[in-house]
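Problem: given the chain below (224 residues), write out its structure.
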Amino acid sequence: MISITILLSSSPAWASAPGRLEQRQELWPAWTGPAALPRPSNSDDLIYPAWFEGLWSVVNEDLDDPTGDLIQHQARFQADDRGRMVGDRAFNALSIGTALLGDQLLRVEDDPNSANRQMAQLKGDLRLDTRVTNRDQSSIDDETFIADEIVLQILHLPGPPRLSRIETLSRYQRCSDQIIRGEQWQARYPAPGQAISNKAISQHHFQLTMRKVADDSVTIQEAK
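Solution.
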């Protein structure tokens, strides 16, 4: 998915007995390669707490580039056919992808056979195939949620495809029924077998604010 996941730094109360994902965050920025996370099956999705339900307006700030423009997009979460709270993956990817790429992004489609694969069509006969290869998640308490995902991105070009891996560690804090704040740590790595070292090609640290949108509001996609 074309995604910037959300993460929030909370009070240090949880730091006294950190779990695996909290320990991963504490290592930042000294990540020496992608985390060793479980591999999801085709039916496994990232399951969010119930307080994510609904449509949200998201403002994203790159803390490594404070002079840069804020990224603004929407995100939607809803129950799936098993009653689990999941992201509306195609909607969310199209929303943030449009904010990042503008009219270069034409459409985003979910794989009907896998909750962990998307295909984005871009101008110039380019296709971006994104697959979640590894994932872990944990609820720290009733108001705090943390997740880590690794995706393999394949950019299909007229020539040979370009591959890369992206790890996004996300922490979310429920501030109220109307506001969720987040923080994200993201690293891009070369594809397996394409480099001697697993050292990150680039790293970014993001801060996000999510505000609930009224149910009858017009979404970005519906307004087109």
